[in-house]
Design brief:
single chain, alpha/beta, TIM Barrel, eight-stranded parallel barrel, 9 helices, about 15% strand
């Protein structure tokens, strides 16, 4: 079975109005993708019925992700903030379930922000407790939760695959998985092979992004090594393209992600190139001998 190749909705749109929903799904299908990653930064703003109807119409599968903010940071030592974050995560889980998604991931263990001090032990425990409860609810719905490993400028919690694996081991929920992203790996990991192999069956989701967030193959990411590592680890999950540019403003997130320049202007050209690049990378490993 061929792996599903996905694209993040933020390549197409910066929100999820009816018009943006249609644009994102129709553009993804027209560009040859199998799957779209839908951001649930504000779960209540998602028109579930419309989105599900358009998913069925286009034949696309969906995954869902989000990132917590300082106001919803479950790794905080402020219990009111933790409680807000837990409510948001459960709301997002319900929306993802109703959309037919079997995966909810992203920076769901803490805030996506520039921290000025290390993670407090009490904050780590708060995050673990919330994630354990969320994982239990997700399991009832047959869903996986993915912990996206991001760089030091966006989290003080999970910056490497090893840290994510240790946290998952401590929580002990079988439906918690690691979400790796080549953009962040390029900053924090030793290489693009060791972390993937270390994750093994715990690798549940993959973001493919270039070192400068632009066209794949034009930066410093070792994509051949990464795709070989996916094959070595036996990974069969989605491979989702993620890219950011000033060409697509994202409400309340462009600043957090430090999207200051145009890494691309033609989203259709970018998307088609990425789709072909990923397919070629995966196919190349299929022709290699074990």
């Amino acid at each position: 079975m061929k792996q599903k190749i996905g694209i993040h909705a933020f390549v197409w749109v910066g929100g999820w109005s009816e018009e943006e929903c249609r644009q994102a799904l129709e553009s993804s299908r027209a560009s040859g993708y199998d799957l779209i990653e839908i951001p649930l930064l504000e779960p209540a703003a998602i028109d579930v019925a419309l989105t599900r109807s358009l998913l069925e119409k286009t034949g696309l599968e969906a995954t869902c992700t989000l990132a917590l903010t300082p106001e919803t940071d479950i790794s905080s030592t402020d219990e009111a903030i933790v409680a807000r974050g837990e409510r948001l995560l459960h709301d997002a889980l319900a929306v993802a379930r109703d959309l037919g998604a079997s995966y909810l991931g992203g920076v769901i263990f803490g805030a996506l922000t520039r921290y000025r001090e290390p993670l407090a032990p009490a904050g780590r425990l708060n995050s673990m407790r919330v994630l354990a409860r969320l994982a239990e609810q997700a399991a009832v719905n047959g869903m996986q939760l993915g912990l996206e490993v991001v760089n030091r400028y966006e989290s003080n919690f999970l910056n490497t695959a090893e840290q994510a694996l240790n946290l998952i081991e401590e929580i002990g929920a079988p439906n918690l998985v690691v979400h790796l992203d080549t953009y962040h790996m390029n900053i924090e990991e030793e290489n693009f092979v060791k972390p993937v192999v270390a994750c093994g069956k715990r690798l549940g989701y993959v973001h493919v992004g270039e070192s400068h967030r632009g066209y794949l193959g034009t930066g410093t990411v070792d994509f051949p090594g990464f795709f070989r590592a996916l094959r070595q680890a036996g990974y069969q999950g989605p491979v989702t393209f993620e890219s950011f540019s000033r060409a697509q403003e994202i409400a309340n997130l462009s600043g957090s992600l430090a999207i200051w320049r145009h890494t691309w202007t033609d989203r259709f050209d970018l998307a088609r190139q990425a789709r072909a690049f990923i397919a070629a990378g995966l196919e190349a490993t299929d022709t290699q001998e074990d």
